Amino acid sequence: MDRTQRLLRSLGKEARVIEIGPSFSPLAPKRDGWNTFVVDHASREELLAKYADQDTAQIEEVDLVWHGGSIADAVPADQHGTYDAFIASHVIEHTTDVVTFLQAAQTLIKPDGIVILAVPDKRKCFDFFRHPSSTADAIAAFRERRVRHTARTHLDYALNMALKPGDAGA
């Protein structure tokens, strides 16, 4: 069973899915018959341009371009509580406020809905030397209603990122 099969094993293609930030690699692509509502930071055309150096064949139409704030606030209210699954692959680690992100998931899924998150293995990526975020960090970001990463976050990233031999960038 591959990674995608493991992540989606509790869903059927008839499930109503909201996928956050699939960019050029959706887990539950519409073209494969999934009933997916796609939310991303850019339109399909903008994603095609941004990822022109990647294989862009999998980029799908974006149903909603998210410009900030809670994802739940961006999704029409009549869709709240209607999704069987909330999927975010390699997205949560980029959020400025994890608590609000998870609250949005709770708002958007049905009471028996599921949240599927894929998170990179810190031991095998550019974050290797960074200190893990703490619960206190998450609570502080939530209380501050943080919508941008702090200068400390940017500095910590720049000072502690690591490249694999031969990599041009993280």
Give the termini separation: 28 Å
Write down the secondary-structure element order.
HEEHEHEHEHH
Unreliable parts: none
Tell me the name of the CATH class of the largest domain: Alpha Beta
Mean pLDDT: 88
Give the tally of β-strands: 5
Write down the Rg. 17 Å
Q: Give the CATH H-level superfamily of the largest domain.
A: Vaccinia Virus protein VP39
CATH topology of the largest domain: Rossmann fold
Count of distinct structural domains: 2
Described by the principal axes of the CA atoms, the overall outline is: globular
CATH architecture descriptor of the largest domain: 3-Layer(aba) Sandwich
Largest sheet: 5 strands, parallel
Q: Helix- and strand-based class?
A: alpha/beta
Can you list the strand order of the major beta sheet? Answer: 3-2-1-4-5
Beta-strand content estimate: 15-25%
Overall helicity: 25-40%
Sum up the structure in keywords:
28% helix; Rossmann fold; 2 domains; single chain; 170 residues; globular
Polypeptide structure, described:
- The protein is an alpha/beta fold and 170 residues long.
- The chain has two domains: 3-119, 3-Layer(aba) Sandwich (Rossmann fold), CATH 3.40.50.150; 122-170, no CATH class.
- It is built from six helices and five strands, in the order H-E-E-H-E-H-E-H-E-H-H.
- Strands 3-2-1-4-5 form a five-stranded parallel beta sheet.
- The longest helix has 11 residues, at 98-108.
- It is globular.
